[in-house]
Write a structure and sequence with these properties.
Layout: E1 7-11, H1 14-20, E2 27-34, E3 40-48, H2 52-57, E4 66-71, H3 75-88, H4 91-94
Antiparallel strand pairs: 1-4, 2-3, 2-4
Bound molecules: zinc ion.
């Protein structure tokens, strides 16, 4: 079964983001809701190339109630993990993501799954 390999889920509020995401670091996140039995249903996957905390604050107050996250050691690691998360969870067919993850401007990195 596919896994995001992230910590959480935590409530997607400004306080909870700051409580759990304490480092300024590239990273990845998944947004969604929990069903009964506490199962996290991921609906959107994303990344930040420099500060996953700030990026998550952009999402508070939206329709997603929970988040999971992980730090990445580099923007490239964050990009490649976002690609794997995106494909593992069904891409645009099943996620709210409208398009394949974009490589950072100025790089020629390729998706490790589909090569795009
Ligand atoms: Zn891909």
């Amino acid at each position: 079964m596919a896994s995001l390999e992230m910590k959480g889920p935590f409530p997607l509020t400004d306080n909870e983001v700051d409580r759990h995401v304490t480092r300024k670091s590239p990273g990845n996140y998944g947004l969604g809701d929990t069903r009964e039995e506490g199962i996290f249903i991921v609906q959107y996957v994303g990344r930040s190339d420099d500060d996953v905390n700030t990026r998550l604050h952009d999402w508070t107050g939206t329709r997603y109630s929970k988040f999971k996250f992980s730090y990445a050691s580099s923007p490239k690691e964050a990009f490649e993990k976002e690609c794997r998360n995106y494909h593992d969870f069904g891409g645009t067919d099943q996620l709210d993501n409208k398009m394949h993850p974009d490589r950072p401007v100025g790089t020629n990195w390729k998706c490790p799954v589909c090569g795009n």
